Amino acid sequence: MRDPSTGVHRAIDAVWRMESARLVAGLVRLVRDVGLAEELAQDALVAALEQWPGAGIPHNPGAWLMAAAKHRAIDQVRRARMMERKHGEMAREREALEEAAVEMRDAALDDPIGDDLLRLMFIACHPVLAPEARVALTLRLLGGLSTEEIARAFLVPVPTVAQRIVRAKQALAEARAPFEAPRGPEFRARIDSVRGVIYLIFNEGYATTSGADWTRPALCEEALRLGRILAELAPGEAESHGLAALMEIQASRLRARTGPGGEPILLPDQDRGAWDGLLIRRGLAALDRAERLGGVRGPYTLQAAIAACHARARTAGDTDWGRIAELYRELARRAPSPIVELNRAVALGMAHGPAAGLEAVDALRSEPSLQAYHLLPTVRGDLLHKLGRMAEARAEFERAAALTRNGRERTLLLERSAACGIPDRC
């Protein structure tokens, strides 16, 4: 006979996924401590696991969890203040916390997206933290992922991720980081970091750097969810809408990027009928919103415009590569980097022929930052293949296969190398 509590536990898990970020965010505002806020949220989860199987799932489970956590917080403050402060100070503190608890219980979680989430994003992406710590803390606090899930997603040991999270919390405490979203110039500087972390998470899901999988859709989904939240919390920030647009459009291709066995399928060979039309429409709408805000287009908005060129093409042959090359040229002015120039070389090769693309790629061969970048020989091999220079193409694909850390990609590159076993025609 099926245990009825199994369904309740599954429902609790779903509620936790949906509500944990707002729960922790609201608690951080109350207790001013990320680690304590997480502990209180976990206490509320334990209470739900104990009570809901018998009492049933409450009508507003998020508010129930918040109320349980705040009651626990108030109890802790009461005990602490009884030991540390005079009775008068304790009473004032208790009264203030109880008033805050009532106000937040009644209002904060009734708002589907509140300022607490934005505040938590800025805390998780504080400049005092190393980039890998920002990613781990963001996924833990805002993505609701466990330490084990984060470790599995990035193919690193669980203790490593756990240590990053612990050290991140310690660093925030030691730096006495304010638990408020920054304003003015600091806001602009920090929101760039927030966007960067979100897109880093998305990219790791879209094109996994190492391991046996070509993509990790769950990471893309988490990043996309965070990007949507950020865009709504900062509606006047064009680049936040640009980032959301870029991820929506790229995520639309996920189903078409792999075959039945998980093997990679490159963009020209993808079944465009398998692209997600809803995500494309959402992405194009977000791009339009970013561009209507005016001003100079930033890197995410420009990349979204490039992705839109692919999304609007009914077939690979209909792609406006000339437009893409122009957008990459603008992107290179706004955010110069060798990788942008490499992508521009691909577009030039498609728009003006492989010889033009190869000339642009060869100008990058001495770039130090690209010496261990597997996509440089991959692109060069593709262009040489199109020019009929098979022996050279084969060598490039073999070099790329040796450089990549992704097993699926290595197999693909070795297959492309083997396909070049034709005498050089040049």
Automatic annotation (TrEMBL):
Residue ranges of domain RNA polymerase sigma-70 region in the record:
22-81
Any Pfam family from its record, for instance, is Sigma70_r2
Where are the coiled-coil regions?
Answer: 80-110
- Ranges for domain DUF6596: 190-290
As one GO molecular function, the record gives:
sigma factor activity
User: What residue stretches are annotated with the RNA polymerase sigma factor 70 region 4 type domain?
Assistant: 121-172
Alphabetic keyword roster:
Coiled coil
**A single GO BP annotation from the record?**
DNA-templated transcription initiation
Protein's recorded name: RNA polymerase sigma factor
**What are the top taxonomic ranks of the organism?**
Bacteria, Pseudomonadati, Acidobacteriota, Holophagae, Holophagales
